[in-house]
């Protein structure tokens, strides 16, 4: 009697690729279908006096909470209200200056009925993010953000996978469109992200640079014997060389010392320095300073109108959590 064939090994990678392929295709369809409705929603939110109130149930509720957080972090006043809790008193959190963005793939989520009725009663703009324009939510909405009725990645179970990916992506598109329309800058972004590595990278160079008597500066005619004393006292491993008007004209680093090691003390600072040093502005972000230091640079002079007003060491970036 022939032996039964061995069962095929489960291929997790193949499943993962299939899921990502399904969702990537759906995202392409979503992008291709974006048009006037999206533009109208961005315009509505941009002129809104109040907040964007996100609501949903189940997985759509989780996505709604995430979109609210993304909007808030990019300068748009937003909050999440659970649709079920709204029916038990939280409707009072929604004001007439607000707009409601309700998420439901089918558009037939029963728990949204009270939110929809409340929005219509008080003429609060209602935006629907759904796959079905002819659903209860779709028909009630003032504006539609339609997602494709694409197959879920776990099609046999119909568990929310592709649909929630589409909702998240459309929420991201909305947030980015709004921040770009407003000219929202990294400096603005910093206000909402003061903590963590991101917050550190968004600090300005001015906030962490060394100033005043800490600056290791010498004149071009300074003897290298005296220049080395300044370099040792300041402990940055570098010297800035400034002209008679205080403009930075060069730097001396350990590399420059090694190149001039023979007869070093017979030279002046101006003879040893490397001209046209790399510098950074005081209002640049700490993350930009880190980018400038990529390679072998460990010290940057902070320059304003050609004159050094501060100095920044790679260790300062490490201490502040940027690197």
Protein model, in words:
A hairpin with a 2-residue loop joins strand 11 (299-304) and strand 12. The strands form three sheets. This protein has a five-stranded parallel beta sheet with strand order 2-1-3-4-5, sandwiched between helices. Strands 6-7-8-9 form a four-stranded mixed beta sheet. The protein has 15 helices and twelve strands. Helix 3 (59-73) packs parallel to helix 7. The protein has two domains: 20-184, 3-Layer(aba) Sandwich (Rossmann fold), CATH 3.40.50.10490; 205-319, CBS-domain. It has 323 residues and is α/β, with parallel strands linked by helices. The model has no long low-confidence stretch (mean pLDDT 88).
How would you summarize the topology of this molecule?
Blueprint (H helix, E strand, L loop, with lengths): L11 H22 L2 H11 L5 E5 L2 H15 L4 E3 L2 H4 L12 E5 L9 H9 L4 E5 L5 H5 L2 E4 L15 H21 L3 H7 L3 H6 L3 H4 L8 E2 L5 H11 L3 E5 L5 E6 H6 L9 H4 L1 E2 L3 E2 L5 H7 L6 E6 L2 E7 H6 L4
Parallel strand pairs: 1-2, 1-3, 3-4, 4-5, 6-7, 10-11
Antiparallel strand pairs: 7-8, 8-9, 11-12
CATH architecture of the largest domain: 3-Layer(aba) Sandwich
Full CATH superfamily name of the largest domain: Glucose-6-phosphate isomerase like protein, domain 1
- How much strand content do the residues show? 15-25%
Number of helices: 15
Based on CA atoms alone, the radius of gyration comes out at 30 Å
Structural class: alpha/beta
- Helix and strand sequence: HHEHEHEHEHEHHHHEHEEHHEEHEEH
Work out the count of structural domains: 2
Give the CATH level 1 class of the largest domain: Alpha Beta
Unreliable stretches: none
Strand order of the largest sheet: 2-1-3-4-5
Ends apart, CA distance between termini: 66 Å
- Share in helix: 40-55%
Looking at the chains present, what oligomeric state does this protein adopt? single chain
Indicate the overall shape: elongated
What is the number of E strands?
12
Major sheet description = 5 strands, parallel
- CATH topology label of the largest domain: Rossmann fold
The residue-averaged pLDDT reads 88
């Amino acid at each position: 009697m022939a032996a039964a064939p061995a069962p095929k090994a489960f291929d997790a990678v193949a499943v993962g690729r299939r899921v990502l392929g399904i969702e990537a295709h759906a995202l392409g369809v979503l992008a291709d279908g974006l048009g006037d409705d999206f533009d109208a929603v961005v315009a509505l939110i941009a002129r809104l006096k109040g907040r964007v109130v996100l609501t949903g149930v189940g997985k759509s509720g989780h996505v709604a909470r995430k979109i609210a957080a993304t909007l808030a972090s990019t300068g748009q006043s937003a909050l999440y209200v659970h649709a079920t809790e709204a029916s038990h008193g939280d409707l009072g959190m929604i004001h007439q200056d607000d707009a409601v963005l309700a998420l439901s793939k089918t558009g037939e989520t029963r728990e949204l009925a009270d939110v929809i009725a409340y929005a219509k009663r008080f003429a609060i703009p209602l935006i629907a993010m759904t796959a079905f324009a002819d659903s209860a939510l779709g028909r009630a909405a003032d504006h539609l953000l339609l997602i494709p009725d694409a197959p879920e990645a776990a099609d046999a179970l119909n568990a929310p996978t592709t649909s929630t990916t589409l909702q998240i992506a459309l929420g991201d598109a909305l947030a980015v469109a709004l921040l770009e329309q407003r000219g929202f800058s990294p400096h603005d972004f910093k206000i909402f992200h003061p903590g963590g590595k991101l917050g550190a990278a968004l600090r300005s160079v001015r906030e962490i640079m060394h100033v005043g008597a800490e600056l290791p500066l010498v004149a071009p005619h300074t003897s290298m014997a005296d220049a080395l004393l300044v370099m040792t006292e300041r402990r940055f491993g570098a010297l800035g060389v400034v002209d008679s008007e205080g403009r930075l004209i060069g730097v001396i680093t350990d590399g420059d010392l090694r190149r001039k090691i023979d007869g070093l003390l017979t030279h002046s600072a101006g003879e040893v320095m490397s001209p046209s040093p790399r510098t950074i502005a005081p209002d640049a972000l700490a993350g930009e300073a880190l980018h400038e230091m990529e390679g072998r640079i460990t010290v940057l002079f902070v320059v304003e109108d050609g004159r050094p007003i501060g100095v920044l060491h790679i260790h300062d970036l490490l201490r502040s959590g940027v690197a």
